[in-house]
Amino acid sequence: MMSEFQRQHPASAISGAFALIRENFVTILIFLFLGVSNENLDFLWWISGGFIVLLLLGFGSWWRFEYKIENGELHIRRGLFVRKNLYLTKDRIQVIDITAGLVQRLFGLVKVDIQTAGSSSREASIEAVSLQRAKEINRLLRGETDSSDAGESEEISETIDKPQKIFTLPGKELLIAASTSGSFGIAFSILATVFSQAEPLLDESEMYDIIIGLLPAQNDLFTIIVMVVIFAAAAWLLSFISTLLSYGDFKLEVKPDEMVISRGIFEKKRLTIPYNRIQAVHISEGIIRQPLGYASVHIESAGYGDDKGTGSIVLFPLMKRDELLLFLNDILPDYQKLHEGVRPPARAARRYMIRASVVITAITAALYWLLSLNNWVWIIPALSVYWGWLRYRDAAAALSEDVLVIRSRQLAKNTAYIKRKRIQDATISQSWIQCFRNLCTVTVHVASGDQGKSFSVTDLEAAEGRFLLKELKGHGMSYGDLQDIPAPEFTVKLPGWPHSLIGSDQAAAN
Amino acid sequence: MKNTPFHKLTPRAIRVWQLGSAFGNLFLFAIPAVYAAIFGYQRFHFWILLSVIVLLLTYYILSIALIPYLSWKKWRYAIDENEIDLKRGVIIHRRTLIPLSRVQHVDTRQGPLLRWYNLASVTISTAATTHEIPALDEVIADRVRHKISTYARLAEDDV
């Protein structure tokens, strides 16, 4: 029965329409405001017209989406305007995730996500089928293991595999994560877009007059400050709620050869990460979270991850810094954790501070002269110098038998653990000035999603950079200027978090 | 201790790059042209235009007379059974190692200009990045591609 082409449950038309709305949220908002501010178009017409178009698109994509399974191969025909034929063969399929979003739950359906290592598998998710049908798909594509691939475990993650460990996010941590989330900036910009679109209509409304009437009419500056504060508070609230909704009910299950992350309150997200797809682990200590002693743990995976196109996955949203090493030991025992590393030399500090502050200082100076601002504005360049110094202090690199550790700071402090055999390429680069000062920048790429992600350390001692490159070569083969470089002095211990497991880590390394 | 020799690109690369910049960088002069069309060339606009044109012209001449030669001089590549080693860069020297076990696929490419000079470039793709050895002789490019893919097959590993 599965070898005939099938359509999904019609409910997928609705979830397809929702997905469209989600993807084009900002555009739709802008359109709405344009429609509202346009006098000769009735608002209701505008809304209902848009809704009908969406439903038609949803219906069309549902009608055009057909799938069948034949001889262990999933064949999907889809595409409203561009016809696509996708073929996913059984032995290429790595993960099958069965989840239920909001729409699916309303109709008692599930969504089936099918992942291969290729990037086209993103399009091969079956949006809405009955649970029974999903189980059948799962059975046909993963169920009966042939003797040929008995080496790979192919259990259905639903039932057979008992997780070894389960980590959950306590409520207190969730609240802190939500209130310090980095999506603050994104929320702010969305608000700004909406507001700039909404302004003409606010101007005409009585609401605006009322709000303005409430404000003590001091001067423009005061109004601006109040506006900014209101804005910031609203943006913060938005990101607070969205983080709460998407990371509520967080659960990380560790299984023998994969990890399963499930999260979300209304919209359940579920991600399965086979260990052999993990390319790098990085720990990020955000600018607000670091003083509080918290960090978040991320993973780069070679399949697809949380966001489109990148393989970045939030492995754990928030954790106390002194629990990090124990946690990493629990889930990734095969990574060595403690390393001797090198830092940029003292003469690089000045370069870091200049790099961080030069543009900001120039802009500040220009504004200062042009707008005759008051002297407090010079705090900003001073802060940027301090930021440069922080970046200098946090930059470090270490290399051991099988792990490269790179620590650096953009705004958040990032510590990345990269398995040596996962490094796709390694580069040392020197600008003219760096040549002259005998410094260099070391960059490595790892695979992430269907593209790459780079980790780099700036302004290391040139000889140390060459030493790292030579070590990365391994094999004892070196030539030219990579020959006979003495091992550098290790000046820093990475990762530098508090820990109480040196003994056990040594044991794990052996 | 085995010594792997570094190879240079073919000297014909210089000529190709010169031609490439000569045509490709012409569009830069569209910037002052557009500016003049919008603001005219009276009073202080004249000085702005003059300085921009002088700067562009300097860059244009350098990009033909000097940069191709320098970047050819700096380019080196070496391939052995473990990794590909690329050195390049005029203003920023770069040296990149690509482990052969990480190479996903190797292609040769040939635009019309390269074909005219019987040259080809070799692109090496890993799961994260794409690197290019530009402007090799057709025959050598084929040989390089073949060598890399043979080694890469030997060094077969997971992603």
The computed structural class of chain A is alpha+beta
Distance between the termini of chain A: 53 Å
Strand count of chain A: 22
Low-confidence stretches of chain A: 144-160, 501-510
Widest sheet: strand ordering of chain B: 1-2-3
Cα radius of gyration of chain B in angstroms:
20 Å
**Strand portion of chain A:** 25-35%
Approximately how much helix is present in the residues of chain A? 40-55%
CATH architecture of the largest domain in chain B: Roll
Assign the CATH class of the largest domain in chain B. Mainly Beta
End-to-end CA span of chain B: 29 Å
- Mean of residue pLDDT values of chain A: 78
What's the total helix number of chain B?
6
Q: What best-fitting shape of chain B do the alpha-carbon axes yield?
A: elongated
* CATH homology superfamily of the largest domain in chain B: Pleckstrin-homology domain (PH domain)/Phosphotyrosine-binding domain (PTB)
Structural class by SSE content of chain B: alpha+beta
Number of helices of chain A: 16
Description:
- Chain B: It comes from Rhodohalobacter mucosus.
- The complex is a heterodimer of chains A (510) and B (159).
- Chain A has 16 helices and 22 strands.
- By secondary structure, chain A is an alpha+beta fold.
- Chain A has an eight-stranded antiparallel beta sheet with strand order 14-13-12-18-17-16-15-22. In chain A, strands 1-2-3-4 form a four-stranded antiparallel beta sheet.
- In chain A, a hairpin with a 2-residue loop joins strand 2 (66-70) and strand 3.
- Chain A is globular, with a radius of gyration of 27 Å.
- Chain B is of the alpha+beta class and 159 residues long.
- Chain B has two domains: 12-71, no CATH class; 77-157, Pleckstrin-homology domain (PH domain)/Phosphotyrosine-binding domain (PTB) (PH-domain like, Roll).
- Chain B is built from six helices and six strands, in the order ααααββββαββα.
- Chain B has a three-stranded antiparallel beta sheet with strand order 1-2-3. In chain B, strands 4-5-6 form a three-stranded antiparallel beta sheet.
- The radius of gyration of chain B is 20 Å and the shape is elongated.
- The model of chain B has no long low-confidence stretch (mean pLDDT 87).
- The A-B interface holds A 117, 276-277, 279, 302, 421, 423-432, 435, 445-448, 451-454, 469, 472-480 and B 1-4, 6, 78, 80, 82-83, 89, 91-99, 101-102, 126-129, 131, 157-159.
- Strand 19 of chain A pairs antiparallel with strand 3 of chain B.
